[in-house]
Amino acid sequence: MTLLQRCFAYLLLLTVVGSVRAQPLPREEIVRLTDAALPAALAQLTEFLAIPNDGHYPEQVEANLAWCKATFLDKGFAVTRIATPGMPLLFAERQIDAALPTVLFYLQIDGQPVDTAAWDQPDPYQVVYKRKGADGTYATVPTPIPAATGIPYDPELRLFARSASDSKGPAVAFLTALDVLAAEGLAPAYNVKVIMDFQEELGSDDLPGAVAAQRELFEADFLVILDGTRHVSNEPTLTFGARGIATVTLEVFGPRTALHSGQYGNFAPNPVFAAARLLAALKDEQGRVMIPGFYDGVELTAADKLEMNRVPETREDIRVMVGIAENEALGDTYQEALQYPSLNVRGLAAGWVGQEVRTLIPDRVTIEIDMRLVPETPGERQVELLRQFIAGQGYHFVDSVPTEEERLRYPKLISFTSSLGSVPFRTALGTPIDRWLTAAISHALGKEPVRMRTTGGSQPLGPFVNRLGLPAVSLRIPNPDNSIHAPNENLRLGNFREGILECIGVLVTPIQ
Amino acid sequence: MTLLQRCFAYLLLLTVVGSVRAQPLPREEIVRLTDAALPAALAQLTEFLAIPNDGHYPEQVEANLAWCKATFLDKGFAVTRIATPGMPLLFAERQIDAALPTVLFYLQIDGQPVDTAAWDQPDPYQVVYKRKGADGTYATVPTPIPAATGIPYDPELRLFARSASDSKGPAVAFLTALDVLAAEGLAPAYNVKVIMDFQEELGSDDLPGAVAAQRELFEADFLVILDGTRHVSNEPTLTFGARGIATVTLEVFGPRTALHSGQYGNFAPNPVFAAARLLAALKDEQGRVMIPGFYDGVELTAADKLEMNRVPETREDIRVMVGIAENEALGDTYQEALQYPSLNVRGLAAGWVGQEVRTLIPDRVTIEIDMRLVPETPGERQVELLRQFIAGQGYHFVDSVPTEEERLRYPKLISFTSSLGSVPFRTALGTPIDRWLTAAISHALGKEPVRMRTTGGSQPLGPFVNRLGLPAVSLRIPNPDNSIHAPNENLRLGNFREGILECIGVLVTPIQ
Asked: How confident is the model at residue A149 (pLDDT cuts 50, 70, 90)?
């Protein structure tokens, strides 16, 4: 079918169903174009992954930025390097029609640092393809990119490299979708803006400032974030928010120095027991935080719960997956549990264990807490509630280490150091961005995406999203078992292919 | 005064007070002889300390054994090398009169390993003398051993070397006392046996077996242990027992592996909170162990309490010393607190803290417990009581790591590994050994010793003492701030001198 023939077919379709702008390419056509584009897409991804992208290194940032700039210029985008107090950002824009809406796409270009020795391949930046065997282990296979197009490939194959899933793979799916449309002479259904981030793994600290400094540059109707991992079912996934995070480090103090447990056992109180009483008071046996007001503001409607019930999972499945007999009791479903703020002890240490063990009464207990946040429970409030709760347990707060006077005066001494991390954000389900993306993906893949009201984890993008003030949704492409942030990060080829399908669907689907 | 004159004086004294056998040397004479012997004693101690004595090394054991053997042979003792399944022991004996009682003295010859780099002197086995300055730091001074005898010396000077206090210093005080008597032509007031231990710091594992194998060799009326540190007041000290120890390692299990605290926060229970509830249930806020039966059998009489009240210390002094506002509530005095078994968490670990912190729900909590024991509360019983208590909290015990089936079946999983260490021992106050030693020290020093019913710590000698079945008391010579087991171990010269005085007093005081 020539371009002219296709245009004619669309006009015909418009006449019949009145929806050409929403679905200008039939699904079969999207599939055919994607499969034809796949070898080139894999080659481009392999080339892109070969550029090391640890955001700690300016030369790596620049190399990736240069690649992105050349790539977007080549596609006819206007490209702007945005200077920030830290590393630069890259902005690309293609105006289709000033009368059309605008969508801002977010691409994460940097990756986690690599510990090469921990990878099962010589170079984490050089792609290796592997197949999972019946025993669950992966065996390397020859690179499956055929010289010619149209060769069938195995969706279960995996491409191993740093950033394959997080998030150069999704970025190349998006680039491929642009190429496919361009090759067909089709324009996106709206104006396209793209912001490329080279320090997401370091916190994306300069993004909110860039938005504040150049507000008009970022003006858009929607934000689509091409980052993050699919729901555990590996069904196509949209997420509408992320929890935020605040952290607190506590030190519960005992005697001035660690003491001989024989000489002082039954005399000098061991701070482990004080810490245990404090921790035991923080949560009940069902996992509910006992701090008054901790959950205030969180309300789930029947409609919210209905949406959560549609996510294809059961609590039993997840219990089996993580190996626990009982889950905590907050909410009626796993998705509901994620709508509440959490309080976790991520680290706990006193004295020595194992080979290092010594018969001492420890001088202190270190408690590392992280609290996940939702929009109704901002970090400042949650930190203050925790502090008040601890004060209510009779603790005297010290700045760092107690003074001699404090040691002899107060039986309960604690230091409290807090830090606010990513802020929570959330876009409502059932709004135009939801309807648009759900329709686009449903059209491209022939099935509805899993729509999650929030992810449990936190994203550095929170301040950026909140500063933009746009409806924002993450379109998540990679397989959930992708080992992101770890050695042997990988991307399932079937996910990469569906990612291209989805990006084409999204680009060609007009915003109603 | 010639020997003949002195003998005449004793006969005169006998006529007057009828107590020559109890105090054959007036205190002034003991002091004069000790001060005259001090330079040679320091030279001998310096020579002895120069022989490295880490019990891990057979060649070091042999070198010390050879030195001890030659020294005791030189003093007219019969010396026997005792072979054991491990390192040898050395036994020395001097029979005065078969009709007299016999006292067995225990000397510890080996020392803790040294970390030379951590010492403030080139070689931990080469004696350095130091003086404490007004700012609490030590400055090296010239070696104060005069060429001639009778030169005054400063009791506050300290002799730094590994084993200066623990316990070659006390051993040389004893050897010097034997020399002083011999030079004066005086015999000890009873038959003397000496057992020398070359692996005390490794647990004295072979001592009880040696006693069992050669019971007649060890037959005696009393055991005097020349090991251990004085009461914190640095007053002359006798201790009549030591607590024992049992240890337990617990692992409280959570999910199969550590989980992302965002993805699973509010769903997967964090084992830290379960562990905290368990620990909080173990002790009340006043430090009393809540395990039923834990203290059963411990009863302190009014006489016991009276003796404890005589120990020169206050709870406030000790609180200030260790830097705590309130002590635990067991017993009315610090000494009373030590008469009870204890339960201490010596180590606690989950997840990561500090620079290593990661936002995970830990998969387990490790709890290292040590329990000090008294004769009424044997380790087997205490361990079993702890196990029953944990079972009563609803825990299912696993051997090491839970199986998949256990993970999905039991919400509370724990592993429990116990080990029995030193056994407790105690000799009653107010018995003949107490009266004899108290009289001897009071005579030699002009003041009564501090008499402690038990030390809080544990001693590897427990099984040896219990196997011997003899009344056993530790005569403790070194200053309490002697840094034993640590770098910069030291012995205060005033303590060494008083140790010689005490040993002379003990050797010349007949057993009534």
From this structure: very low
Q: Are B237 and B231 in contact (CB under 8 A)?
A: yes
- C-alpha distances in angstroms, B23 versus A47, A305, A418, A432? 97, 93, 69, 105
Q: For B401-434, give the DSSP string.
A: SPPHHHHHH-SSEEEEEEEE-PPPEE--TTSHHH
CA A390 to chain centre: 32
Cβ pair A365:B348 closer than 8 A: yes
Q: Which one of B348, B407, B408 has the shortest CB-CB distance to A350? A: B348
Please answer whether residues A119 and A209 qualify as being in contact, where contact means their C-beta atoms are separated by less than 8 angstroms.
no
Inform me whether the pLDDT recorded for B157 exceeds 60.
yes
A329, A347, A330, A348: which is closest to A339 by C-alpha? A330
Task: For domain B3-242+425-508, say whether CATH 3.40.630.10 is its number.
Answer: yes
User: Domain segments of chain B: what residues?
Assistant: 3-242+425-508, 244-298+340-420
CA distance B343 to A314: 43
**Given B320, B353, B366, which is nearest A366 (Cβ)?**
B353
Which of B247, B260, B261 to mutate to test binding with chain A, by most A CBs within 10 Å of its CB?
B261
Reply yes or no on whether the pLDDT at B23 is more than 90: no
Q: Which CATH number fits domain A17-84+99-242+424-508: 3.40.50.300, 3.40.50.10320, 3.30.9.10, 3.40.630.10?
A: 3.40.630.10
> How far, in Å, CA of A180 to CA of A44, rounded?
14
Kindly report the number of other CB atoms within 10 A of residue B450's CB atom: 21
Q: Encode pLDDT of A274-320 as tens digits.
A: 999 999 999 999 999 999 999 999 999 999 999 999 999 999 999 99
Query: For position B133, what pLDDT does the model report?
Result: 86
**Which pLDDT does position A132 carry in this prediction?**
86
Classify domain A244-298+340-420 at the CATH class level. alpha beta
What is the overall mean pLDDT for chain A?
92
What CA–CA distance (Å, rounded) separates B211 from B218?
6
3-state secondary structure of B228: coil
DSSP character at residue A111: B
Q: Nearest-5° angle of CA A120, CA A162, CA A74?
A: 140
CA-based nearest residue to A371, from B270, B261, B275, B277 = B261
User: What distance in Å separates residue A175's CA from the closest CA in chain B?
Assistant: 30
Domains A17-84+99-242+424-508 and A244-298+340-420 share a fold: no
Which pLDDT band, with edges at 50, 70 and 90, does A14 fall under?
Answer: very low
Burial class of residue A238, CB neighbours in 10 A (0-12, 13-18, 19+): buried
* Minimum-distance CB partner of B322 among A264, A272, A352: A264
The pTM of the whole model exceeds 0.90: no
Alpha-carbon gap, residue A49 to A37, rounded angstroms: 18
Q: What is the DSSP letter of B215?
A: T
SS3 B30: helix
CB pairs under 8 A between A and B: 281
Q: pLDDT, tens digit, for every residue of A400-433?
A: 999 999 999 999 999 999 999 999 999 999 999 9
> What is residue A498's predicted lDDT score, i.e. its pLDDT?
98
Taking only the tens place, the pLDDT of each residue in A184-236 is 999 999 999 999 999 999 989 999 999 999 999 999 999 999 999 999 999 99
CA distance B124 to B135: 24
pLDDT at B304: 95
Three-class DSSP category at A307: helix
Task: Count the neighbouring beta carbons within 10 Å of the beta carbon of residue B316.
Answer: 10
Query: What integer is the mean pLDDT of B107-130?
Result: 95
Backbone angles phi, psi at A121, to 5 degrees: -150, 155
Q: How does strand A138-141 pair with strand A102-108?
A: unpaired
C-alpha B212/C-alpha B221 separation (Å) is 17
